[in-house]
Amino acid sequence: MSLFGSNNSAASIPSGGSGFTFGASQSTQQKQESQGTQGPSLFGQSSQQQNQQQQPNSNSSTMATSAFEKSTNLTSNTSSISPEGSSGKVLKDLLESASNLPKLDYNSLGTINLPLNELRNRTKLLSKNESEAGFTKAHYLLSGSGINAGDIEVELNNIRGLAPSSRQTKQLHELQAQQEQQQKPSDKPSQEDRLVAREAVQSPALTTGINNIENYLRAKKDENILNAIESSLVTASRDFDNFIAKNITIDWRVRKDHLKRSLGIPVKTKISPEELSKSFTWNQSQPGNYRILTPLKQKAGTSSSVRHFTREKFESHAKLIYSLNEARLKQLPFPIASSFEEVNKANQDLKSKQMADTWKVIANLTDEKFVKHNQEQAFYEDYQNKKDCISLKKRIVANSRSCLEKQFFDYMDEFYTKDDQKIPEYSVPSNINKVSHFISKVIGKKNGNEVSQQTLQVNGVPIWALIYYLMRSGLYNEAVQLTNQRRELFEKFDKNFPVYISAHVRNQCFGLPATLQERLSSDFNQTFQFLDEKSPNFDPYKYAVYKVIGKCDLAKKSLPAAVNLSIEEWLWFHLNLINEFNFDASSSLIYENYRLENLQKKVLAIGPEKLNASSNNPVYLKTLTMIGLYELAVKYAYENINECDAVHFATGLCYYGLLRVTSQPTDDLLTLNGSDEYEINLSRILGSYTRSFKISDPKVAVQYLVLICMAKGGKSTEETAKCHEALRELILITREFTLLLGELNEVTGEKSPGILEKQRSLIGLADLSSFQRTIVDVSASRCEEEGRVFDALLLHQLSQDYNVVVRLINQYVSETLSMSELDKPLLSEKIPSGGEGQSQSSENNFISRSKHIMGIYNNNSAILEKVSPEVKKVNDALLQIVDIRESFAARNWRDSLSALQKLPFFAALNSNDFVEVRNSAESLTSYHVALVRVIPSLLVMIMTSVAQLTHNIKSKRFGSFGGEKDELAYLRKIAKNCVVYAGLVQYRMPRETYSLLVNLESQL
Question: Taking 70 as the threshold, does the pLDDT of residue 596 lie above it?
Answer without folding.
Answer: yes
